[in-house]
């Protein structure tokens, strides 16, 4: 049977259990102070009654009004401290059934609705859960759930932004359990697949660099690319966050006129995006992010393995080297230089396709009100979503892999980094 829960919310954010405890302590302190002020006022009124001169009357009258104002301020503090107990609540219903593969197969079958809701088909969800090595049971403090339930809830939460009270009926869990499940799922993928977040995720593709360069040079529907040693593209993307209450300037991006953190992404012609780097404060540049990420050093090591020089192509914001290329930036350009820039820009757009698919399939990343840099693990959401997007490419491909006719590996091969 469904269980009815009551959660207190309202205003800008709901009150937590710590807020209620602090309110009780404040009420006790303020109540004792109000009683002391009342006793002081009563004592001073008795002295005023016993006064014999006009001068004493004026002094006692001033003291009386001072005590009265002090007591009224204490009463106002008591009422403010008691606000969590009187704030209107939001009633939500907890559903009767938790997430499970059996429920998804019974509810969706082989229809495309499951893919629209969970981004993967039911059979592929089972396979992905095994590949991500989710345990049978996951527990922490007062929370316990099966691994498949945590996996499915993480996928559901990342796929589209929703309030926890809205997901309570669909997930069969209250707000506290939902928060714990999401945290456990994100941390499991983030920590157990660290090799998909650092330089190893790029260097493992070193022996495929000659094939990537051939696919890029062959180009797509708009013709051949002029470079014969380009194996991918590098670019940056912004993840908007809620306006922080401290250090707002370092998060503010002057170009977008919003607070954000920045991520650096690399796109390969098979649709895989390795080595996500970030977050970097929104006020920093792409060149600064490139230097901090160590991407040039990773490219140098990867090229040393194959004994040839290959490069990633970026926009004019990136400093050029043997391993990072870019368009001609001087002016005026001759015909050959302008033709080179035009033909390379037609293939460089694929990096924007990759960032776009991440934000479309995992729309939770684009909901800035859920990303509070001092409260949430903002640094973990994007890498986990990018890993899941790469798994999505392994199952279904994407626009980039079709454009260059370069197939992604099987999901088990990708997650193991054994290319």
Provide a descriptive summary of the structure in words:
This protein is of the alpha+beta class and 419 residues long. Helices cover 53% and strands 13% of the residues. The protein contains 19 helices and 10 strands. It has helices spanning 17-49, 54-81, 83-86, 101-108, 113-118, 122-131, 147-159, 164-171, 175-192, 200-203, 209-218, 248-251, 286-293, 295-306, 335-348, 350-361, 378-396, 399-404, 411-416, and strands spanning 3-8, 89-94, 137-140, 143-146, 230-240, 252-253, 258-267, 277-281, 311-313, 324-325. The longest helix is centred in the first third of the chain and has 33 residues, at 17-49. It is globular, with a radius of gyration of 30 Å. Mean pLDDT is 84; it is low at 1-13.
Task: Report the portion of residues in β strands.
Answer: 5-15%
**Uncertain regions: pLDDT < 50 for 5+ in a row?**
1-13
Instruction: Report the mean per-residue pLDDT as an integer.
Output: 84
Question: Radius of gyration in whole Å, from Cα?
Answer: 30 Å
Taking the alpha carbons of the first and last residues, their distance comes to 49 Å
Q: How would a textbook summarize the main sheet?
A: 6 strands, mixed
Q: Total helix count?
A: 19
What is the approximate shape? globular
Helix-strand makeup class: alpha+beta
Number of strands: 10
Question: Could you estimate the helical fraction of the residues in percent?
Answer: 40-55%
SSE string? EHHHEHHHEEHHHHHEHEEEHHEEHHHHH
């Amino acid at each position: 049977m469904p269980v009815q829960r009551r959660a207190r919310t309202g205003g800008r954010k709901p009150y937590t259990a710590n807020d209620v405890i602090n309110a009780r302590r404040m009420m006790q302190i303020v109540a004792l102070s109000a009683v002391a002020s009342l006793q002081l006022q009563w004592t001073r009124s008795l002295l005023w009654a016993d006064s014999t001169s006009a001068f004493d009357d004026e002094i006692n009258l001033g003291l009386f009004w001072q005590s009265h104002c002090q007591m009224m301020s204490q009463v106002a503090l008591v009422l403010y401290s008691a606000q969590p107990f009187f704030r209107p609540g939001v009633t939500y219903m907890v559903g009767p059934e938790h997430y499970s593969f059996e429920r998804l197969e019974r509810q969706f079958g082989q229809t495309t609705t499951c893919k629209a809701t969970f981004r993967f088909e039911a059979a592929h969800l089972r396979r992905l859960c095994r590949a991500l090595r989710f345990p049978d049971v996951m527990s922490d403090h007062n929370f316990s759930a099966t691994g498949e339930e945590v996996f499915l809830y993480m996928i559901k939460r990342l796929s589209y932004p929703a309030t926890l009270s809205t997901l309570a009926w669909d997930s069969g869990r209250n707000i506290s359990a939902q928060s714990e499940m999401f945290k456990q799922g994100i941390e499991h993928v983030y920590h157990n697949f660290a090799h998909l977040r650092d330089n190893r995720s790029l260097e493992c593709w070193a022996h495929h660099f000659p094939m990537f360069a051939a696919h890029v040079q062959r180009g797509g529907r708009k013709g051949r690319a002029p470079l014969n040693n380009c194996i991918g593209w590098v670019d940056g993307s912004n993840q908007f966050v809620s306006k922080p209450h401290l250090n707002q300037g370092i998060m503010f991006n002057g170009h977008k006129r919003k607070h954000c953190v920045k991520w650096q992404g690399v796109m390969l012609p098979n649709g895989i995006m390795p080595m996500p780097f970030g977050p970097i404060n929104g006020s920093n540049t792409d060149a600064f992010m490139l230097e901090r990420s160590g991407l040039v050093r990773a490219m140098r090591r990867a090229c040393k393995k194959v004994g040839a020089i290959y490069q990633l192509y970026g926009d004019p914001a990136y400093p050029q080297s043997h391993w990072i290329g870019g368009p001609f930036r001087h002016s005026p350009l001759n015909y050959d230089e302008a033709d080179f820039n035009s033909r390379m820009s037609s293939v460089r757009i694929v990096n924007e396709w990759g960032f776009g698919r991440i934000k479309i399939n995992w729309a939770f990343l684009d909901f800035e009100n859920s990303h509070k840099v001092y409260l949430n693990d903002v640094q973990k959401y994007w890498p986990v979503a990018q890993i899941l997007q790469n798994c999505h490419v392994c199952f279904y491909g994407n626009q980039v892999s079709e454009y260059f006719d370069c197939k992604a590996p099987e999901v088990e091969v990708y997650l193991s980094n054994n290319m």
